[in-house]
Amino acid sequence: MFRNEVGALIIRVVLGLIFAVHGLVKFQDGIGSTVAWFESINIPGFLAYGIASLELVGGILLIIGLATRIVSGLFVLLMVGAIITVKFAVGFLNGVEFDLALMAMAAFLAIAGSKLYAVDNRVFNHK
After folding, report:
1. Looking at residue 73, what is its pLDDT?
2. How does the average pLDDT of the chain come out, rounded?
3. In the chain, what is the greatest distance between 2 CA atoms, to the nearest angstrom?
4. Residue 38 DSSP symbol
5. pTM here?
6. pLDDT tens digits, residue range 58-91?
């Protein structure tokens, strides 16, 4: 049981770090370039703000273990959207593979959760 929680903790922190960094980079590079790229692939540019915010804030929430299942579910939806709109056209290698791995990690956390060293346990007194 404890080994499973350690594994979930590792997945939660690594996934959170990956998404947080991706969101941060979108803002650091100037969100306008992300907006323009979205528009160039026929996705409304305003969605770039929401996606970058979800990646940054959601990643931080995963790292600290707050709303893990909800955030992970949103990340699954985000990855489905990325795969359908962008990655299928690229192919598997250097395309879908990384997003599938992130989606699988997020799906695991959405289903199983992660309680070890999670703020959720302090806030909601989960056992």
Report:
1. 98
2. 93
3. 48
4. H
5. 0.92
6. 999 999 999 999 999 999 999 999 999 988 888 8
Query: Phi and psi dihedrals of 91, rounded to 5?
Result: 110, -170
pLDDT grade, residue 24 (50/70/90)? very high
Residue owning tokens 């790229």: 37
CA distance 124 to 75: 22
Distance, CA of 30 to CA of 22 (rounded, Å)? 13
Show me where the domains of the chain are located. Answer: 2-114
Long-range contacts of 9-14 (CB under 8 A, 24+ apart): 9/114, 9/116, 9/117, 11/105, 11/108, 11/109, 11/114, 12/62, 12/63, 12/65, 12/68, 12/109, 12/114, 12/118, 13/62, 13/63, 14/105
Tokens 């590079």 label which residue?
29
* Sign (positive or negative) of CA dihedral 87, 16, 108, 47: negative
Alpha helices in the chain (DSSP H): 2-28, 31-40, 47-64, 68-82, 88-90, 97-112, 119-124
